[in-house]
Structure formats: C-alpha cells, structure tokens
Amino acid sequence: MALTSASLPTKKKILTVCVKLFLEKGYRKTTIAEIIDKADVSCSSFQNIFRAKDGVLTELVQFMFSNQFAMARGVADEKLPPVYVYAAETAIQMTLTELNENLREIYIEAYTQREASEYIFQETAKELEKIFGAYMPGLTQRDFYYMEIGSAGIMRGFMQHPCNEEWTLEKKLRLFLTMSLRAYNVPEEELEKVIRFVEGLDIRAIAEEALHKLFEALAMRYEFTLDT
C-alpha cells in the first residue's frame, strides 16, 4: 500500500509502540493484538500499512542497518584499508547482541525473516563490493550478494549462541573474522593484522556507545522514551 499523508501518523504510532515493545519485552513475545491495542489503531489499518509483524521488523531493520557502516568508519581510521571497516562493523554488530537479549532477538529475526534479510543482503552486497572487490576482481555486486547470504548465515549462527566462559566474545569475533575474511580472499598476513586491530579495540565500550546512539536516534525519530 502506498502511504498517504493521512496514514503517516498511524504508521508512526504503530512504529513508536513496536520499538518500545520489541526493546523492552522482546520481538517474539510482542503480539499484533498488543500492538494494535497500545497504538490505538484498527487491525485493518495495521494490515494495510505493515501486513504483519515482520513488516514492522523490516522497517526497523532498514533504520538500524542504514548507518552501521558509517558507525564503523568512525572506529576505523580513514587511512586504513576498507577491510578494517568491515571488521569493525561486524564486530560491533555481534557485540551489540551480547549487551541486550531483546536486541539479540531482533538481530536474529532480522537475519531470519525473508523481507528483512533480503534488505540486509542487498545493502551489504553494495558495501562488500567496495571493500573486497580488489581481492576478488571480476566479481559483480550480485556475486557479493550471494556471498553475503553465506557470511550472514555464519553471523546469525554466532549471534544465536551467547558467550560464556569458554565461548568468549574475543574467541567468537576472531573465529568469525577468520572465516569471513578468508572467504573474501583477504591474504593471511593482512587478515591477522585486521583481527589484531579489532582485538586492540575496547569493543564492548564501542558497542555500548553505539547502542546508546541507536536508542537516541530511535527515540528522536519515533518520539518515545525507553525505560532504562
């Protein structure tokens, strides 16, 4: 459905409620009936705008993922090769899921739901072509799209298993980056330098700052306050 000026306030009301519920209660535990009730909208209005709950997720994923590489560029010095941006971005993303269980659920669902994951694959493929094109000359953006499906599957699997005393965040990040950078044909010597760069970051503090900025941006866009 093409949104009209009349339906935009309704969309904003729904998104405001969904952001609060997803972050405070969890994606799976939030029901459409609860969204409709708290947003004070009709079921038909909700279905016309979003069709289903996963439609809301796709909207939020587009917002969350749109600036992730920009955040990573702020961490990696602009003088460093682009592969450092990829390493920082994926490390931040994976660390975020260790800071907040409801956010972990949102990310896992984002990599699972068809529409949301398709958005991630398409947008990430554009970045991958810029970052890894020099290592894999001749590949097209579509080639990187298919490769992203594979690396995103690894990302989702790692996110789904919380860290513990044995499965530390450091081990998780090193293994993921080793697997993914090898897949993108990064030479072993450079690969190790990139991983050591990430290991030298205070990645938890960086992820906490990113989470704070994400909540601030969400609150500004959808005009709500989150319980802390």
Please give a quick description of this structure.
The chain has 228 residues and is mainly alpha-helical. It contains 12 helices and no strands.
Distance between the termini: 35 Å
Shape, please?
globular
* DSSP helical segment count: 12
The helix/strand series, from N terminus to C terminus, equals HHHHHHHHHHHH
Mean pLDDT: 91
Proportion of residues in extended strands: under 5%
Characterize the main sheet. none
Helix content: over 70%
Low-confidence stretches: 1-6
Radius of gyration: 19 Å
By helix and strand content, what is the structural category?
Answer: mainly alpha
How many beta-strand runs?
A: 0
Give a written overview of the molecule.
The protein contains twelve helices and no strands. It is mainly alpha-helical. The longest helix is centred in the middle third of the chain and has 20 residues, at 141-160.
